[in-house]
Fold this protein.
Amino acid sequence: MNNSRIPMPVQAPEERIKNFSEVALGYNEEAAISEAERCMNCKTHPCTAACPVGVRIPEFIACIKEGRFEEAYSVVRADNALPAVCGRVCPQERQCEGSCLRQKAGGPIAIGRLERFVADRHAAQGGTPSKAPASGRKVAVVGSGPAGLACAGELAARGYAVTVFEALHLAGGVLAYGIPEFRLPKRIVNQEIAALEEMGVTFVKNAVIGRSLTVSELRAEGFAAVFLGTGAGLPNFMNIPGENARGVFSANEYLTRINLMKAYEEDAETPVFRAKQVAVVGGGNVAMDAARCARRLGAEVTVVYRRSEEELPARREEVEHAREEGIGFAFLTNPVEVLTREGDVCGLRCVKMQLGAPDASGRRRPTAVAGSEHDRAADCVIMALGTSPNPLIGQTTEGLELRGRGEIFADENGRTSLRGVYAGGDAVTGAATVILAMGAGKRAARAIDEDIRSGIL
Ligand code: FAD
Ligand code: SF4
């Protein structure tokens, strides 16, 4: 039995900073089998317990060990509608791999890499999903991110005629407009969407619900239920002086130009701001993605984060990859002003921070160190400070109860304050993760099915 985790082959850092192609290249059959052989098939299955959608991990790994790759795929697919996506972007170190009992014996089993391997192999073989007999009822899904896609998939598998309404011109939500090509190739997202289309799901793009049609109009059009998976796409800002200068962007805008509109391509019609020195403010996955995109566009990049390295919320692998790509980090540093010259960004005034007692999030609260003001050079500042739900659905849907920063109130099965209206994903929780959004979409689909069958709808 191999002792250490099989490394993931990657594009060399000096090469990959010049392109937007995928960084991690994936296991081949031999590597996947060797990694699977490290699994001890633990009786208590702590890995499965730590997976938000309960994938039967030891079972699918046992199939890989014996070369039964399609069976491995079926085991994963039974609980996870987007395995090729999750294998690439889930924060495994805090979920399945974080609970793996091989932690101290050569490292946790590379569960995410194995999940990606079986999904990619299945796609390469051209597997087609099965169609369920029609139930005669139709359901509307608003938003085509992971919550909406998971909900649509689960409903289609139960025979419902599902229509997904998407505000943008491409489906996929953050998978399409947020996470860059070098981490999640868009062909993977498109494959998953094509599989749903084959199951009979219809996608209506450029349809902003709340503008083109309201939620109650959808119900009136005969949709038995409406699922709201509208995400949290409204960027937060710091509200500091100079933030309106030319050269300050929200990470959302910056990444959407690059990912959705391919602004990095030579002949792209979408303009992108090419800078020499970029400061990215924040420490999550969004900050890492923005920093790594800016690096690929030729800039020197520093991530400015107000807490210390231990508190960085981004996936560990992304932080390691960012470092390898030459991205700098200024920890315990917080901007207080964007410096400008004739309306353009010319720097960032910051203060040093120190960590005090833990706050409500359980992380130590940062406070400014008196007299620590200092300036950093920058001609572009990207704010990656979290996002809130877009207020449109709340404003246009009478009786829909909202919480905190405009999150839609829904119970654990996605039922909102309005009969026939369900919600899940970032629109309910605020910015979270792909797998949590998918889990919520799937639970809501089951609740919709239950309510339709029991005659409530
Ligand atoms: P979204 O993916 O936001 O999808 C919502 C969709 O609804 C969008 O397509 C939007 O256009 C559409 N919509 C909104 N309003 C309307 C309307 N009125 N009418 C019609 N359509 C509407 N998570 C991870 O697990 N791992 C990662 O590595 C990771 N990296 C990330 C990197 C970035 C840059 C970002 C922004 C997020 C990242 N996340 C990551 C978080 C993860 O992507 C989100 O938690 C997840 O996508 C939420 O899914 P959702 O379906 O709830 O919403
Ligand atoms: Fe295998 Fe780790 Fe799960 Fe044990 S905890 S069954 S070693 S993946």
